[in-house]
Amino acid sequence: MGPIKEVGFSISVNDYLITLEGLPSAKVNDVVISELGERAIVNSLEGNYLQALLLESRHPKPGEMFYLDDGGIKLPLCDGLLGRTVNPLGAPIDGKAPLPKDRQKLELDVVALGIAERELITDQLSTGFTVVDTLLPIAKGQRELIIGDARSGKSTFLLDIIINQKGKNVICVYGAVGKSEIGIKRFAAAISQAGASEYTTILAATSSSPTPLITIAPSVAFSVAEYFCSKGRDVLLILDDLGVHARYLREIALISKQIPGRESYPGGIFHAHSHLMERAGRFKGNNGASITLLPVIENDLENFTNLIPTNLMSQTDGHLLFSSNLRAQGQYPAIEWDRSVTRVGRQTQPNLLKTLGSRVRALLAEYQELKRYITFEAEISGDSQLKIKQAEMVLEVLRQENEEALEPKIQATLLATIFTRFMNDKTPQSLHLNKRKIIKALRSDPVLTQIVETEKDSLEHLIERLDSNSDILLKAMPNQ
After folding, report:
1. What pLDDT score does 1 carry?
2. What's the whole-model pTM score?
3. 277-307 b/e with 16+ CB inside 10 Å = b?
4. pLDDT exceeds cutoff 90 at 359
């Protein structure tokens, strides 16, 4: 005679929501399984009944028998996940070979580690983009919200950041929440084509997946990130996007007849996201390994008063604002630097980059003021004209092409070049035409390479050394 098992029976089925009677020891987030193998996750307990959300496509009929599934949700947490695209249940969706059968049970409601288990964030995450690494730096272990309009280049930016981690000993986990299947396939193909598969895992719940499966995708993606972090690896985790995730949580809350809150979202929506965010950081015990989180939300930039964007902003360490207007003007990445914030990243920058970033921000702020005078055709001094030209050159440097990654040393030296005497008689147009030549010279010329390597010096010393070697720059940027 086998062991005695608790049994429950479905008494009603409403789409993916089933009401069960029995299973007295069941808890929220436990997994139950039917006689035919359909799994569901317990959502709420009400007296002698419980509500569960189906993770499978088939809907059971009233009267079907369910058992507690001791195995729960399992995933093969191993290096074999790298280069693969899997769903939150660990099933491959990339058409490749099956994953290893050895699987670990995942806890969906993980309590984030406390302050005693964390370390000071000291290292910068290099993105390859000058506007981010210099003006809006992201630290390893930081939570930086990516927010912007549709068609503002957010997805391309995220793809390039993953590609730019090549050779930097960073594991990338891309959590796709409610994305289209074709979009995920294109993203995975771009990752593979760029040679980034060896350090990237895609955890995807497509828009055709059952709603409950989509809602657990961010938590499962975090479990994957935490596995690699536990092995002493720095991890970049992208959750794209949490606005979609919130809408699915609202759908579940409404079908469950929960009392709706603001904008009809459930009352626990803030907790649902903050509970996730706190799992990022830099931790003790694993060589100071970190999880850097980039949550994404698509939102109209003219309206920040919506519940979910304001919630996410309050839970993160800053945000990068993407504008479709800037993208339409050819700016990439289309980040509104003056409306974006980073609260942690600057503490990880070398003094040279801090000083340079402050000078560039002050110059661009003054440029915004001077543009107003120009609008009214007011006369401006020669010094102001120089500042306008320098600001326009800075904007040209901040504009990059897709897959054009720049090392922080190159970014700093290229920006510092703008403040040299050599550039006083140059125009923004000539910089645009010769920017690639200057970057090539900074990377290849022995003298300039040595200048770039001395990044610990002050900004003024760097500018002086560039001026004293202006003959080399002149070859890359002749008078025009």
Report:
1. 46
2. 0.93
3. bbbbbbbeebebbbbbbbbbbbbebeeeeeb
4. yes
